[in-house]
User: Which sequence fits this backbone?
């Protein structure tokens, strides 16, 4: 392509970055997509990899494969260390710099431990495939360690699971883990009964799934409790270490604590030199451009923008819509039209699965729970997966799990220290 053609750099191959890139396929534009991983990840199903329901390739696809027919794109596997807005350059971790005419920063978010980063090693979060594979090992190894533990108290600690955070990820993890303990692993051990495992979901706020209407969250709580999950609300966790966690004034021995309580924006936003909100997200203009730098756009979890007095949520549909809007603004710019309509988020509803045949759905005036909501959730997630193979494999695995309660990816691999090392590397990750 002609070097004089305007150059767009897209940082991040997630929903915002990939959707913007694909929407610009027919434009006279050189696009360089940079990501520190070689794949696009369907993050809403990441918990399924962590709980052995799906394998990593089922919910991810190589970026090069997705974009193989888009001739105006090249993919770089690399890590952006900082953005140099005044020079219109990005600097990679290896020291190389790359110039741009337009820039889209969509580097996502990482875990937030609310000032207790020391908890990261003992309470891993779930944001990447690496996190999911490490967490899968940690969960399955807890049952293996309990089987070999002769001391009753120590065994009890291995069979005590705590998920901190009552949002969709926490609820999905808790419900699925309870099903694994009570159905998938039944009759497979000789010295323990996995059904005696305690799965506790802890939310500091007054209710789980606070983004849903109260009547639906009440139903979600009842469905969780029916699955065997102990739901604790209104009490924060104040300490986490390798031996357990402190809930209020009580220390609870537990060898498996999972963090699902908060997120922080990618540190790359700090290099833009513009105002950030308390979570480190960039406060963008109405068209998602950066104040003072109209050539720079921010999308996805890194963008902070309000609509009708409420912040646009950090969910996949919002990121996709941001990517599409940024692409439409760039199309106008390339045609000499500097005007741009403000971004408007179209809320298509909230979905959360709780377990087998248990979910809640809120779409406009429609409210569903139980089996109808579960079918709705399943259809929506299969539809939005990228690629026929991914949809087919996920459907087959879910069908098998539905009839047999078995989970297709229960292989434990790696040495005992590998999971911990991986968690330490992934939490928090370096700038994208």
Assistant:
């Amino acid at each position: 392509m002609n070097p004089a053609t305007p150059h767009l750099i897209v940082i991040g191959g997630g929903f915002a970055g990939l959707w913007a890139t694909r929407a610009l396929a027919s434009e006279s534009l050189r696009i360089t997509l940079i990501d520190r991983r070689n794949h696009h990840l369907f993050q809403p199903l990441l918990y399924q990899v962590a709980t052995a329901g799906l394998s990593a390739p089922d919910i991810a696809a190589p970026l090069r494969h997705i974009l193989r027919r888009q001739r105006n794109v090249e993919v770089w596997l690399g890590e952006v260390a900082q953005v140099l807005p005044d020079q219109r350059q990005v600097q990679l971790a290896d020291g190389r710099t790359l110039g741009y005419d337009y820039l889209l920063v969509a580097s996502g978010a990482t875990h937030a431990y609310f000032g207790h980063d020391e908890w990261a090693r003992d309470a891993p979060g779930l944001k990447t495939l690496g996190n999911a594979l490490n967490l899968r090992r940690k969960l399955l190894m807890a049952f293996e360690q309990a089987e070999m533990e002769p001391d009753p108290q120590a065994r009890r600690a291995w069979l005590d699971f705590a998920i901190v955070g009552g949002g969709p990820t926490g609820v999905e993890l808790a419900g699925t883990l309870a099903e694994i303990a009570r159905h998938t692993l039944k009759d497979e051990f000789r010295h323990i009964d996995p059904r005696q495992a305690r799965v506790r979901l802890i939310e500091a706020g007054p209710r789980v799934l606070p983004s849903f209407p109260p009547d639906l969250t009440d139903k979600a709580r009842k469905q969780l409790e029916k699955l065997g999950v102990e739901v604790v609300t209104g009490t924060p966790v104040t300490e986490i270490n390798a031996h357990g966690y402190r809930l209020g004034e009580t220390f609870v021995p537990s060898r498996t604590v999972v963090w699902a309580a908060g997120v922080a924006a990618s540190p790359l936003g700090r290099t833009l030199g513009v105002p950030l909100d308390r979570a480190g997200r960039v406060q963008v203009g109405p068209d998602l451009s950066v104040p003072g730098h109209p050539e720079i756009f921010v999308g996805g979890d890194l963008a902070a923008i309000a609509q009708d007095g409420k912040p646009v949520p950090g969910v996949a549909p919002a990121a996709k819509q941001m990517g599409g809007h940024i692409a439409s603004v760039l199309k106008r710019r390339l045609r000499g039209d500097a005007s741009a309509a403000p971004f408007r988020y179209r809320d298509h509803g909230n979905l959360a699965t709780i377990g087998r045949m248990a979910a809640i759905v809120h779409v406009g005036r429609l409210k569903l729970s139980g089996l109808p909501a579960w079918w709705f959730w399943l259809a929506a997630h299969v539809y939005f997966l990228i690629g026929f193979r991914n949809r087919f494999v996920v459907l087959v695995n879910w069908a098998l799990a539905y009839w047999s309660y078995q989970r297709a990816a229960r292989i434990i691999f790696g040495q005992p220290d590998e999971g911990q090392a991986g968690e330490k590397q992934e939490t928090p990750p370096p700038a994208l």
